Amino acid sequence: MTTLSPLSPDTRKEGPVPTEGTPQGGRTASGDRTAAAATATRPAAAARPAAAAGPAALVAWHAARTPQALAVADGDTTLTYAQLVSSARALAAHLREHGVRRGDSVALLMPRSARTVVAQLALWWAGAVCVPLDPAHPRARSEALAADAGATLTVGDGKLLESAALTGATLALPGEPLVDGGNPPGVELAPDAAAFIMFTSGSTGRPKGVAIPHRAIAELVCDPAYLTLTSRDRVLFHSPMTFDASTFEVWGALTNGAAVVVSTTERPSFEDLARQVERHGVTVAFFTTALFHQLAGRRSRIFAQLRTVVVGGEALSAHHAREVLQAFPWLELVNGYGPTEATTFTTAHRVTLADCDGQVPIGRPIAGATVHLLDDAGRPVPYGEVGELWIGGSRLAHGYTGQPELTAERFSDHPELGRLYRSGDLVSRRPDGTLDFHGRTDDQVKIRGFRIEPAEIEHALREQSEVADAAVAVHRPSPDDARLAAFVVAAPGPVPRPDALRDRLAAVLPAHLVPDEVRVVDALPLNSSGKVDRRALTDLVTADGPDAPAGPLGPLEQAVAEVWSRSLGREVTRPDADFLALGGHSLLALAVTDDLREELGVELTLADFFAAPTVAGHAALVERALLAAHSDLHPGAPEDTDGH
After folding, report:
1. ∠ CA 370-373-376, rounded to 5°
2. Choice between 131 and 14, residue whose per-residue pLDDT is larger
């Protein structure tokens, strides 16, 4: 599908980012011919398209202007701009031959890779709307999302499609590069046509598919004034395709002539990210706020290589921002805020040390966005007072696919301010126009960068026959850790087992929506209005007393238990203690694996971590890794005889 090629030895070394137009690494013979043909036939440089033309037009312009510049780096393989455009256009023609037509919604199921970037661009040039699916999501959810988006076809990696066994029409994309010497043109894209349908959590139990237009993506990322991004940069692509931050990571790079560096590891560890940044000379990265806090707390060397870091998803800790800026004073740290409905970022603020003396602001509107702080009657609130944030401007989504009533509820035409999106966020404005975030008007929460409607999880719990009622709250054992706690009232009959309920939820919900803890209670606490008292629920989540030991811990088990205790914020004393049952989650797992690497000198993959998530299981993995690294420690190994 793509023209991928091994890196030549000299490009594997760390070093400065190459200048624009410099050839990047080796190419296959077909790649050389493609680049040569593009160089020989490209017309005189035309003026750069306006952002309204969309990201695909901007990528094509960069390919015509600097065909041999690096576009995508994926492990030991690369794509130049000429190769990217040629492969994407050839694949677009292939998709059209298989029935894809202008306006079709097409689901994309692929692991994150250079092929993913080519496939997204090809779908656009075939005239389709891309509906990203996450390979880690349960099949039932992927099918539901594709159906809600009106997808006529699911394309992607053949092995993934086969294992997913989706019931709708599928098309495995070619494994070999598709290169058409004629370089067929793509379908001309209307700026306001939808580019993506991305799903967010829904308060009715049904996810919301947000239709994002081409124009909105290009306006967000083309020549951004809220951060430094040039053709010399390399931008890390490590977010899931289904997360709107990926639009910034991929198209922020490619609309500015920069390079995308793809993290192909499904769940990269802190060390994986640092190594990739160092190896490929990454200069720009986005991190969810929760991930940034973890990296900052460790003074990760990842910041030594980066020039610009954008964070977003939750409130930024002033303490962690200060630590990073003091340790890495050259770093450009940008605090970004915005819902998917307004295309990733609505406001942004370049954080300084002075900002860290109080609440870090979310900044001012960027790239065509407008903001309005209104009271309950729809009137503007004075400076310094808190109001609900309504967002306008040219980057608003079309609405929610297939949900016109919900679209009308959240998007409205204001007689004076134009079309607006009601965010549900409470914000105040400083005298200089900078905005501060103060919370929500509803129950929606952000955890580890994901937008979560507790009602969606509650709906899934109530679908279980043993559950009469359910409620979900957020438990914060520490400022840097937020966990979902579910409380269920049992229906008449056998009392449901919490671990069984979690397993059933994991079969229908993505991992970030599965509660970290499930408790069975006699009744849900209610407030004076008869609604669930979520504050009272969080009071029910108290740290359990120390576990009674189930026998003495061995030396390695004790070392593992101490690492767990620090991350979980509770004493762990049993060898059979289960990480997930104690409230552990994927971000804490990254912290534990990083600490095990630092303290015991072993590296555990997240796959191994969750395959044996007990103290005893991890101790066994540590022992196995140590024995593999030190063959002289193997029982029965021959004694050293000094060669005699």
Report:
1. 135
2. 131
- For β-strands 208-213 and 399-400, DSSP reports them as antiparallel
What's the CATH number for 5-282?
Answer: 3.40.50.12780
C-alpha 343/C-alpha 248 separation (Å) is 9
Half-sphere exposure of 486 (CA within 13 A, CB side): 30
DSSP of 450-516, one letter per residue?
EEE-HHHHHHHHHTSTTEEEEEEEEEEEETTEEEEEEEEEEPSSSPPPHHHHHHHHHTTS-GGGS-S
Q: Which secondary structure element, helix H or strand E, spans residue 71, and what is its range?
A: strand 70-74
Question: What are the Cα distances from residue 587, in Å, to 76, 115, 153?
Answer: 27, 27, 34
pLDDT tens digits along 418-447 = 999 999 999 999 999 999 998 877 767 777
- Which residues have CB under 8 Å from 404's CB, separation 6+? none
Helices (H) and strands (E) in the chain, counts: 20, 27
Task: Give, in degrees to the nearest 5, the angle at Cα 81 between 80 and 85.
Answer: 120
123 vs 101: CA distance, rounded Å: 10
pLDDT at 248: 96
Beta bridge partners of 131: 107
Contact 565, 571 (CB under 8 A): yes
**Segment 579-606, tens digit of pLDDT:** 877 777 777 888 888 888 888 778 888 7
3-state secondary structure of 518: strand
Return the CATH superfamily for domain 309-440. Answer: Luciferase; Domain 3 (2.30.38.10)
| Closest C-alpha to 337, from 413, 389, 383 | 389
Distance CA 211, CA 558 (A): 51
Per-residue pLDDT tens for 443-486?
A: 677 776 677 888 788 888 888 888 888 888 887 766 667 778 88
Closest CA to 184 of 96, 89, 118, 100: 89
pTM, 2 dp: 0.76
Same fold, 457-540 and 555-632: no
Residues in Cβ contact with 218 at an 8 Å cutoff, skipping those fewer than 6 apart? 51, 52, 53, 54, 55, 58, 251, 255
Say which CATH topology domain 555-632 has: 1.10.1200
Ordered by start, the domain boundaries in the chain are 5-282, 309-440, 457-540, 555-632
Residue 5 contacts residue 77 (beta carbons within 8 Å)? yes
Q: What is the structure's pLDDT at 176?
A: 66
- The strand pairing partners of 426, in sequence order, are 388, 439
Q: Phi, psi at residue 350, to the nearest 5°?
A: -80, 115
Q: Are 180 and 355 in contact (CB under 8 A)?
A: no
What's the Cα-to-Cα distance from 485 to each of 532, 569, 599, rounded to whole Å?
A: 14, 16, 31
pLDDT in tens, 142-199: 998 999 999 999 999 999 998 888 888 999 998 766 665 556 666 778 889 999 999 9
Cβ partners under 8 Å of residue 295, min gap 6? 270, 287, 302, 303
The phi, psi pair for 543, rounded to 5°, reads -65, 130
Q: Which amino acid is at 185?
A: P
Backbone angles phi, psi at 361, to 5 degrees: -75, 165
DSSP 185: P
